Amino acid sequence: MGDGFSINISGQDLKKISDRYSQLRLEYEKSKVDKSSQIIDYLRAYLLLSGFEECLEYVGIDHEIFENGIEPLE
């Protein structure tokens, strides 16, 4: 990056980020289709996922790489 900022993430940490993203995405998708859930459950899931995506973007990681999950390199 041109601003002098760099980040090093181990494969294990990347896997943890991917797992957390997948968990938040699943909670969000479930809250959208679950007719018994209240609007507050949907908003909570949306805000958690949105905030996580924004944090990733802030440090220069595109959240779309986690859409299908990732496996750490051996």
Please, could you describe this protein's structure?
The chain starts with 10 loop residues before the first helix and ends in a 16-residue tail after the last helix. Helix 1 (11-33) packs antiparallel against helix 2 (39-58). It contains 2 helices and no strands. Helix content is 58%, strand content 0%. The protein has 74 residues and is mainly alpha-helical. It has helices at residues 11-33, 39-58.
Task: Give me a quick take on this structure.
Helix content is 58%, strand content 0%.
Number of helices: 2
In helices, the fraction of residues equals 55-70%
Low-confidence stretches: none
Q: Kindly, what is the distance between the CA atoms of the first and last residues, rounded to a whole number of angstroms?
A: 26 Å
Biggest pleated-sheet summary: none
Please, what is the average pLDDT?
Answer: 84
Radius of gyration: 14 Å
Q: Judging from the principal axes of the Cα atoms, what is the shape?
A: elongated
Query: Strand-and-helix sequence, N→C?
Result: HH
